[in-house]
């Protein structure tokens, strides 16, 4: 009887304490906003849950885009007690990420992102370590030819391997996802590790499949919930699977780095890992302590660049080919232009300026595919008044790239596949400022120039050699453009025929 009363009393006390804390939190939030200025508007929130019941977590970018039409280009939502400011539309996102790059330039390291990298590496870090690792990555990758002719040669070589892989199917329907991912992975592998892998290599297959699963699971509803309530982690299968992937990825990265370390020659730098190890060795010999060049930054930077360099380019190329099979009249025009301008010789990067329609089709594919709909979350580095609203230092910010790539004030027909978005009245290619698939500002994709080169050369090489069609018995109208939603948007599982044009 006494135990029962004590338990009941304890429960009531805990409930009362929780209610008091919630009230204090709401009062503090209200007082703080009134004291500092007007905070961005947003839907009314529930205690503890915030706005979780008002958004579709299965397609969060679309739900937030819809809310922007009611609350404006700068608005607030709450995920549990977590406050998030959403930026919507080209003008607002550009103003924040480019014109106020410093204030909106920090990374929001969510619980799952911390689990991935422990604050090290390039993608999920801040401060001096991030600045040095990003600077080193950009400089080193450029030294090894990122965006230059030396990269072009590696990509053209890989185009031949990919073409051979497609030819083996002899025009029959197949799923091209793995072959495309292996090809794009080999380009970043050449820069990171100084070598490419055979497509049948189990190490390549394991790394690519694991990274693909990780990127998919990271955008799942259960992981979004985990970021709000981290104590739920061990109870969630997706979190346990992600942690297993992280451990396996670390083991693979350590093995590859150890192999390169054994044959390191500072006089003959072969790749990114060599450059990092040489810099680390030089600093240690100079007696410099507390350097950012340590094993964790090397390992996580390698993992970041390998995963990002594989997924985004491979994903974009899959969408390009799917759009060509879906819209055969557009494929016809691309192939006519390639035949007229290039003929049967190998396409080179310098041909891009003479292939305006082809270039427009690639850009439109990236725009409509919208593969990274919300970018990686940002965080304000200081208090800022933005478009008349006060946003406190440390506030999580979602730059909604969906709202940029589908902005009705920037694109004539934002929800349809229309290469004319990138062509003037004379058929010349035109750049559009609202084309932001790589994000913008301080946190823009560091591999953008490489990705653009890869996508152009892979796409044109494949369109020179093959005509892409739906499988027998499937019409163009029946090809499904509904994406599979993860952290990135990938095409639904599908098969296409690659019919030789020779």
Automatic annotation (TrEMBL):
<dbReference type="GO" id="GO:0020037">
    <property type="term" value="F:heme binding"/>
</dbReference>
<keyword id="KW-0472">Membrane</keyword>
<dbReference type="GO" id="GO:0046222">
    <property type="term" value="P:aflatoxin metabolic process"/>
</dbReference>
<protein>
    <recommendedName>
        <fullName>Cytochrome P450 2K1-like</fullName>
    </recommendedName>
</protein>
<dbReference type="Pfam" id="PF00067">
    <property type="entry name" value="p450"/>
</dbReference>
<keyword id="KW-0503">Monooxygenase</keyword>
<dbReference type="InterPro" id="IPR002401">
    <property type="entry name" value="Cyt_P450_E_grp-I"/>
</dbReference>
<dbReference type="GO" id="GO:0016712">
    <property type="term" value="F:oxidoreductase activity, acting on paired donors, with incorporation or reduction of molecular oxygen, reduced flavin or flavoprotein as one donor, and incorporation of one atom of oxygen"/>
</dbReference>
<dbReference type="GO" id="GO:0006805">
    <property type="term" value="P:xenobiotic metabolic process"/>
</dbReference>
<dbReference type="InterPro" id="IPR036396">
    <property type="entry name" value="Cyt_P450_sf"/>
</dbReference>
<keyword id="KW-0408">Iron</keyword>
<comment type="similarity">
    <text>Belongs to the cytochrome P450 family.</text>
</comment>
<dbReference type="GO" id="GO:0005789">
    <property type="term" value="C:endoplasmic reticulum membrane"/>
</dbReference>
<dbReference type="InterPro" id="IPR017972">
    <property type="entry name" value="Cyt_P450_CS"/>
</dbReference>
<feature type="binding site" description="axial binding residue">
    <location>
        <position position="445"/>
    </location>
    <ligand>
        <name>heme</name>
    </ligand>
</feature>
<dbReference type="GO" id="GO:0005506">
    <property type="term" value="F:iron ion binding"/>
</dbReference>
<dbReference type="InterPro" id="IPR050182">
    <property type="entry name" value="Cytochrome_P450_fam2"/>
</dbReference>
<keyword id="KW-0479">Metal-binding</keyword>
<dbReference type="GO" id="GO:0006082">
    <property type="term" value="P:organic acid metabolic process"/>
</dbReference>
<keyword id="KW-0256">Endoplasmic reticulum</keyword>
<keyword id="KW-0349">Heme</keyword>
<keyword id="KW-0560">Oxidoreductase</keyword>
<keyword id="KW-0492">Microsome</keyword>
<dbReference type="InterPro" id="IPR001128">
    <property type="entry name" value="Cyt_P450"/>
</dbReference>
């Amino acid at each position: 009887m006494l135990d029962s009363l004590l338990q009941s009393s304890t429960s009531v006390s805990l409930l009362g304490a929780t209610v008091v804390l919630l009230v204090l939190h709401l009062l503090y939030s209200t007082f703080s906003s009134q004291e500092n200025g007007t905070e961005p508007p947003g839907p009314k929130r529930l205690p503890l849950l915030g706005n979780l019941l008002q958004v579709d977590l299965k397609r969060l970018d679309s739900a937030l885009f819809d809310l922007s039409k009611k609350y404006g280009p700068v608005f607030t939502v709450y995920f549990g007690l977590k406050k998030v400011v959403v930026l919507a539309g080209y003008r607002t996102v550009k103003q924040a990420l480019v014109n106020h790059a410093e204030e909106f330039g920090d990374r929001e390291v969510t619980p799952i992102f911390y689990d991935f990298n422990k604050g090290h590496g390039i993608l999920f870090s801040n401060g001096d370590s991030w600045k040095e690792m990003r600077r080193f990555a950009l400089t080193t990758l450029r030294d090894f030819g990122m965006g230059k002719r030396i990269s072009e040669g590696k990509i053209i070589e890989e185009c031949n391997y990919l073409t051979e892989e497609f030819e083996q199917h002899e025009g029959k329907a197949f799923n091209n996802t793995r072959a495309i991912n292996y090809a794009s992975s080999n380009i970043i592998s050449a820069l990171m590790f100084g070598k490419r892998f055979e497509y049948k290599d189990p190490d390549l297959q394991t790394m690519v499949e694991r990274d693909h699963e990780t990127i998919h699971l990271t955008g799942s509803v259960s992981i979004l919930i985990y970021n709000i309530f981290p104590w739920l982690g061990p109870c969630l299968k997706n979190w346990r699977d992600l942690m297993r992937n992280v451990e396996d990825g670390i083991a693979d990265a350590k093995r590859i780095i150890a192999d390169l370390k054994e044959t390191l020659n500072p006089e003959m730098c072969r790749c990114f890992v060599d450059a990092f190890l040489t810099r680390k060795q030089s600093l240690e010999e100079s007696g410099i302590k507390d350097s950012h060049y340590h094993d964790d930054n090397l390992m996580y930077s390698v993992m970041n660049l390998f995963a990002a360099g594989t997924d985004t380019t491979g994903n974009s190329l899959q969408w390009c080919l799917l759009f060509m099979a879906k819209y055969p009249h557009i494929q016809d025009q691309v192939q006519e232009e390639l035949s007229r301008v290039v003929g049967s010789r190998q396409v080179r990067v310098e041909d891009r300026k003479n292939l305006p329609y082809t270039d427009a089709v690639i850009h439109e594919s990236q725009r409509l595919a919208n593969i990274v709909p919300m970018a990686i979350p940002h965080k304000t580095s200081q208090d800022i008044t933005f478009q008349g609203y006060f946003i406190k230092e440390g506030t999580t910010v979602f730059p909604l790239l969906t709202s940029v790539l589908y902005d009705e004030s920037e694109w004539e027909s934002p929800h349809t596949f229309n290469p004319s978005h990138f062509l003037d009245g004379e058929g010349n290619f035109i750049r559009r400022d609202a084309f932001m698939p790589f994000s913008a500002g301080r946190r823009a994709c560091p591999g953008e120039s490489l990705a653009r080169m890869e996508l152009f050369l892979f796409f044109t090489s494949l369109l020179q050699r093959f005509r892409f069609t739906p499988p027998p018995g499937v019409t163009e109208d029946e090809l499904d453009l509904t994406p599979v939603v993860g952290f990135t948007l990938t095409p639904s599982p599908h098969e296409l025929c690659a019919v030789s044009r020779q």
